[in-house]
Amino acid sequence: MYTQIATNKRRSVFLLIGFVLFVGGLDYLLSRAFHQPAAFVPILIFAIIYAAISFFFSAKIALTMSGAKEIAKADAPELYRLVENLSIAGGLPMPKVYIVDDPAPNAFATGRDPEHAVVAVTSGILQVLNKTELEGVLAHELSHVGNYDIRFMALVVALVSVVSVIADLLLRLSFWGGDDEEAGNNQLFLILSIVGAILAPIAAAMIQFAVSRQREYLADASGALLTRYPEGLALALEKISSADLPMKHANSATAPLYISNPLKGRSFAGLFNTHPPIEERVRRLREMETKQ
Description:
Elements: H1 4-33, H2 40-56, H3 58-66, E1 68-70, H4 77-89, E2 96-100, E3 107-110, E4 118-122, H5 123-128, H6 131-146, H7 149-176, H8 180-185, H9 187-227, H10 230-243, H11 278-291
């Protein structure tokens, strides 16, 4: 747990290298399949610029998509003080605090690093949880900040979106086809481009979901250590789970950010479940309680 910051920083570097190689491979298939070698560099540059913009504006994008509004201390004194106290205890800069007007109890943290972090909670979670439970949830979210999960997930979301855009372009061009004579000489690259376009977003999403599940367990444990009361977060997770309400503005792109799956109750929501089972998370937290 204490090496998670270094691990996330290494993963970020490997993710960037893998992204450039992966997009470069898709780009190469595209240029070979359609005899457009001149398109290779511009598409790769576009992908890198698109990813950079998505990364640096990841917090603003997530907050806009969720309909979150920034608050001052006077707007919600207890919430603000809890975030303030936990930030001090965790040795973190004070993040901006936002509230999402939504009856579904949930919360998330986002940003590219602790200095640009944001913690957001729904109006529903403020109504459902008591102070101790809310503190557990906020400690969980601030653990994402302290562990640099927010940076890594901002990278993952940005790169997954770029891969999806490139794959969609590749798939459309593959089905449009090209010159018959040229296509006949490049059937292998055409087939590979179609296969790559279909599998790329699926593989990227699977990586995103796997990473999200692991980080939730780590943030649960880190948050429990921060408050010294695992039962607070365990009770909060049980209440959040029992509410069984999907969020109004959540989607599969922002779902990994939340403490609990915001898509629950919707059709096919299980296909986009980026979170481990609540029961397993609660079990692990209560095991921590017994070991203290």
